[in-house]
């Protein structure tokens, strides 16, 4: 049996005619950059995420970049985030000649640890000049970071908060949607995301009208009106084709997220029944905010376990036709391009340990019971031997 990490063909087969129809509509209009389809998507995403404003941009990476530009981040400013995430979160900070400052993660959620965040900021206040301007918590794998203490810290020290919700559109924290909690939220529409386009795309959401207006200007080279440049921006525009496709797919997002949750619960139960759970073989981090019940909603962009003999398990699954992925094999503070920051092995031990043990299994909505059972069977077979 062959099981891919993600089967986009299975998803496409169910919505093919709707997708073809809206693509044809855009082709007939010959309006490919911004326009009514983008405006429609912006309105839909703002409503979906519980924010007042949304701005369609060219990618999740550019959503982060333009957000930092809108906050007037300058060279030498310090931006706090975690090292256990996709590269772009820290990459955009460095592109602006600002300084990424890394805080270790919580071992259960993989998201930024608020206690360590507070300790770092308190330490930084003792320096001669306080340079921290912003915190970027990542809602990793589809689960929101613990936002209440993060917002409390940000308010105390007058810091901006950008939610990196690239993997978590539709996730909730205490009844609030990802992206709506901080000053700015960003989403990615990379094809592998729960809401993925057929190319690159992203979105910035906010409740701040001034930030909204500024981001709209920044995405078109800082021009307002056309050819009159108030500020220096960039080419961060969203294509109309991507917007049209995403408007179709958005209607199905909650259904797909529900199926991902069901698949995760199936894995949890069957791994437990197979006596694989525990320090001996596998750990399956669960949502940490248990006291809030249904007010917290994990959308499982990834289903990530911690596995003993992770690399050998991955190879065994590959030999048996099961695709997996490691998110992420090297934490950012140990990446070669960030050597200049001065971090070394052992500085952020939770992230470093996670990078050696995490393994993401197929979790896409179209997985069949037979496929899920086959995955459990092969994991069990590996550990029995």
CATH architecture of the largest domain: 3-Layer(aba) Sandwich
Low-confidence blocks of residues: none
CATH fold field value of the largest domain: Aspartate Aminotransferase, domain 2
Shape: globular
Helix-strand makeup class: alpha/beta
DSSP, total strands: 12
Q: Which homologous superfamily in CATH is the superfamily of the largest domain? A: Type I PLP-dependent aspartate aminotransferase-like (Major domain)
The CATH top-level class label of the largest domain: Alpha Beta
Q: Percentage of helical residues?
A: 40-55%
Average of the residue pLDDT scores:
94
Residue share in β-strands: 5-15%
Number of helices: 12
Q: What is the element string, with H for helices and E for strands?
A: HHEHEHEHEHEEEEEHHHEEHHEH
Whole-number tally of structural domains: 2
Biggest pleated sheet: 7 strands, mixed
Radius of gyration: 21 Å
Spatial strand order of the main sheet: 1-9-8-5-4-2-3
Describe this entry's structure for a reader.
This protein is an alpha/beta fold and 385 residues long. The protein has 2 domains: 8-250, Type I PLP-dependent aspartate aminotransferase-like (Major domain) (Aspartate Aminotransferase, domain 2, 3-Layer(aba) Sandwich); 253-384, Aspartate Aminotransferase, domain 1. It is 40% helix and 12% strand. The protein has helices spanning 8-29, 36-49, 60-70, 88-95, 114-124, 147-157, 209-218, 240-250, 253-273, 310-319, 349-357, 369-384, and strands at residues 53-57, 78-81, 99-102, 132-135, 160-164, 172-173, 176-177, 184-188, 202-206, 282-283, 303-307, 358-361. It has a 7-stranded mixed sheet, sandwiched between helices. It has a 3-stranded antiparallel sheet with strand order 10-11-12. A two-stranded antiparallel ribbon has the order 6-7. Strand 4, helix 6 (147-157) and strand 5 (160-164) form a beta-alpha-beta unit. Helix 1 (8-29) packs across helix 8 (240-250), helix 3 (60-70) packs across helix 4 (88-95) and helix 5 (114-124) packs parallel to helix 6 (147-157). The longest helix is centred in the N-terminal third of the chain and has 22 residues, at 8-29. The radius of gyration is 21 Å and the shape is globular. It starts with 7 loop residues before the first helix and ends with a helix. The model has no long low-confidence stretch (mean pLDDT 94).
